[in-house]
Amino acid sequence: MATERFEKKQARWWSSLVWPVSGLALLLLFDLCFTDGFFKLEVRDGHLYGVLIDILNHGSKVMLLALGMTLVIATGGVDLSVGAVMAIAGAVAARLINTTNVSFPVVIGVTLAVAIAAGCWNGLLVGAFRIQPIVATLILMVAGRGVAMLITDGQIITFTEPWLTYIGNGHLLGLPFPVWLSGGMLLITALLTRRTALGLFIESVGDNQTASTYAGVNSSTVKFFVYVFSGFCAGLAGLVAASNIKCADSNHAGLFLELDAILAVVVGGTLLTGGRFYLVGAMVGALFIQTLTTTMYMRNVSADIAPVPKALAILVVCLLQSPKVRTKFSGLLKRRGS
Amino acid sequence: MKKHFSQTESLVKGLLGSLLLATICAVGARAAEKKIVVGFSQIGAESGWRTANTESIKAEAAKRGIELKFADAQQKQENQIKALRSFVAQGVDVIAFSPVVETGWEWVLREIKRAGIPVVLSDRAVAVTDDSLYVTFIGADFVEEGRRAGRWLAKASDGKAVIAELVGTPGSAPAIDRKKGFTEVIGQYPGMKIVKSQSGDFTRAKGKEVMESFLKSPDAKQITALFAHNDDMALGAIQAMEEAGVKPGKDILIVSIDGVHGAFEAMAAGKLNCTVECNPLIGPQLFDAVDAILAKKKLPKRTQVIEGVFEQSQAAAELPNRKY
Questions:
Q1: DSSP string of A221-279, one letter each residue
Q2: How far apart are CA A223 and CA B151, in angstroms?
């Protein structure tokens, strides 16, 4: 009985992945055939070096954001503030590492605490005060960048501390550290939501808040938690972003990345209306977006028109996701078959 | 009742009289000092460059004893128009402003002209049908900056270079004009060609990411030069080169535009070859223009900002002088 249920769950889990994965596979196939040097991998200075590694490396920021965003969207909300929280995290880290002789673990601790505090703010507004998520998180999205600018005095603060620069530039067992970081976070998030009842709580709140409240789920607490978690993920992403360029650029760090994260979640198969969520799907979605961007660079598509092919590719994946389009499509195939 | 009324009347008269006296005194004092009042409306504080621009104007006004009425438009045209109208109401001697956008200034500039106040544009131009609406425009010439970068690269590479280009934000004036000026010069040298051109959005992060993909393309080994539309993108690209084992400044010549502090540090370290200055410190030139206007001197419609081209050899000496 138990194994049967487990198998059922697995089947569902895999079937949800079919569409985003096939989208990514199609894109990679296109690159394999038409983009020179896309699949070239070599070992340089003891670590892997190539375009695919770059995609994993740069995609990890959106992957981290998408982890938090998936849970938020699963409760029927949205977190628009993650880009601004990234900027704040970068600013705090750069400021702390430069000013006093604060040790590296303290810097990381304080930075993540600030990011969590930002998440608490969103969580309070949405969970306790019942403000609509899009409005509640918009506040921090607008104000957060200002806070980051305040911390850095509107300047770009550079740093050279080896541990802090390792987060975004270092390598572990041949792969860039951000890849391990996002992979590890995926594992933790998956265990937290799938091996405990938490995932069920989140899905139930997103599916039907009234019903879940009557069933004894404290929806306010669940919502508070997902925004805190999203803030934490944004803090990590902010550290990676700042570390990668060895400076805190408050004006541009994480700019518009909240939209990429939402897109990754949607491409991954999670509905914006909440309910069932797919973490691995969101990761594939993040990689899909990054692969598209890198493809544009590699194929030398002019930046003026690059958004058009990107939008078209995303449109195709979203259409593949739509059940209506799929039934029409399969109906067409069947008719042709008969 | 009547008595009471007359009392009030006398009180009012007295008050008015003293007010008048105070005004006369104030005007007298003002006339004695002859303090010039300039209203300046700034775009906002979106970058280090802009902050340096503001600081330069404020510092120069304080130095010359000019009263500066400063208004920050926070990137909004309506704020700026409000500020300009309030300058007219306050009767300032000269109005200066950096327009947020190019269009939509005709009405408010006419109002200012009717009030008889001369207008100086700084940093960005406006599109108006009647160019008597402003006296002069002081600002950088983005096309010329692009040309300077091109000329420097042509000289440094003896007219032979395979160039990768990091473009600014698509559609922005500096990106369009710098590209235009650069390609104009490059076109005169058959040995120079741009093989890669992608947008780095004027940021370090994107500059680095795009450069990484340039370095992994099959024709990466041919690239001998990099032209970045601003210093930040070049600084990001330098990191990408170092990580790929390419020596920035030696294997690949790098020229960028702006002349920010970080660029001079990179030049002093031998990683950046040249930066074309885009000078935000226009305070002195702005108030020279104000003085000239008030002295009824004729000014050209376009005043070029004094800008230099800096190479590695000058970097270490120039570094302490950089204010932005």
A1: HHHHHHHHHHHHHHHHHHHHHHHHHTEE-TTTTTTTHHHHHHHHHHHTT--TT-SS--H
A2: 59
Q: Is the pLDDT of residue B207 over 90?
A: yes
Backbone torsion region of residue A235, taken as left when φ is above 0, otherwise alpha when ψ lies between -120 and 50, otherwise beta: alpha
Backbone angles phi, psi at B55, to 5 degrees: -60, -40
3-class secondary structure, B100: coil
Measured between CA atoms, how close is A216 to chain B, in angstroms? 46
Domain B35-139+280-305 has CATH 3.40.50.2300: yes
Q: CB A300 to CB B262 under 8 A?
A: no
pLDDT number for residue B21: 53
A interface test, pick of B46, B209, B260 with most A CB neighbours within 10 Å: B209
Q: Tally C-beta pairs within 8 A across A and B.
A: 73
Rounded distance between C-alpha atoms, residue A173 and residue A47, angstroms: 7
Among candidate residues A104, A116, A88, A59, the one with its CA nearest the CA of residue A289: A59
> Contact at 8 Å (CB) between A298 and B213?
yes
> CA-CA distance, A233 to A63, in Å (whole number)?
9
- Token output for A55: 């995609």
Give the CA distances from residue A236 to residues A110, A147, B89, in Å, rounded to whole numbers and listed in that order.
12, 18, 51
* Residues B122, B178: Cα–Cα separation, whole Å: 19
Quick one: which H or E segment has residue B277? strand B274-277
Model confidence at B31: pLDDT above 80: no
C-alpha atoms less than 13 angstroms from C-alpha of A1 in its C-beta half-sphere: 0
What residue ranges do the domains of chain A occupy? 22-331
Structure tokens at B235: 């600084």
CATH 3.40.50.2300 maps onto chain B at 35-139+280-305, 142-278
Chain A positions touching chain B (beta carbons under 8 Å)? 36-37, 40, 44-45, 49-51, 54, 58, 154-156, 158, 169, 241, 244-247, 249, 251-253, 294, 296-298, 300, 302-304, 306
ipTM of the complex: 0.86
CATH superfamily of B142-278: Response regulator (3.40.50.2300)
Q: How far does A36 lie from chain B, in Å, by closest CA?
A: 6
> B160-187 pLDDT, tens per residue?
999 999 998 887 878 889 999 999 999 9
Q: Which of the pair, A99 or A76, is modelled with greater confidence?
A: A76
Helix (H) / strand (E) containing B312: helix B312-318
Tell me the nearest-neighbour CA distance from B290 into chain A, angstroms.
29
Looking only at the bridges linking them, the beta strands covering A47-50 and A41-44 are: antiparallel
Alpha-carbon span B34 to A30, nearest angstrom: 73
